[in-house]
Amino acid sequence: MNIMSYAMDNAGASLLENNENNAYSIPTWEDLRRVYDAKWLEEKEKFHNQLKENFRALVSQYKSGQQEIFELSEGTYTKHYEQAFRELFADTGYQATVGATEKLGTGNKRCKKLYVTLPPCHN
Q1: Within a 10 A sphere around the Cβ of 41, how many other Cβ atoms?
Q2: Is 54 within the bounds of a domain?
Q3: How many domains are there within the chain?
Q4: Residue 83's beta-bridge partner residues?
Q5: Which of 74, 73, 78, 70 is closest to 50 using CA atoms?
Q6: Can you give the residue range of the structural domain that contains 40?
Q7: Segment 19-64, tens digit of pLDDT
Q8: Alpha-carbon distance 112 to 110, whole Å?
Q9: At 53, phi and psi to the nearest 5?
Q10: Whole-model pTM?
Q11: Is residue 123 part of a domain?
């Protein structure tokens, strides 16, 4: 779903609707910013849910020490996702860490691994 179809679905009066003269009008900067912010909050919630699920999987296996919790593809919003990761694991005991950029395969794809540190597990 692109950002403008999101605006049509969730912002009540669509930012894309034509006015009565069948001409598109540019939304205000503030209206557009609100749509973008709402979209980011939706994406952030999905990301947090994925991190929580991955965390639960690690804990259910009684993992300890530094563990990879997610592999983040490099993109336009990478910094936002890194910040969201650090927000979720704000407890300093988890030592939320963003790994160095790594090249994936032979293409131009790059990623960063996200790590948390889990306490020792004495079986």
Answers
A1: 10
A2: yes
A3: 1
A4: none
A5: 70
A6: 3-118
A7: 667 788 899 999 999 999 999 999 999 999 999 999 999 999 999 9
A8: 7
A9: -65, -45
A10: 0.77
A11: no
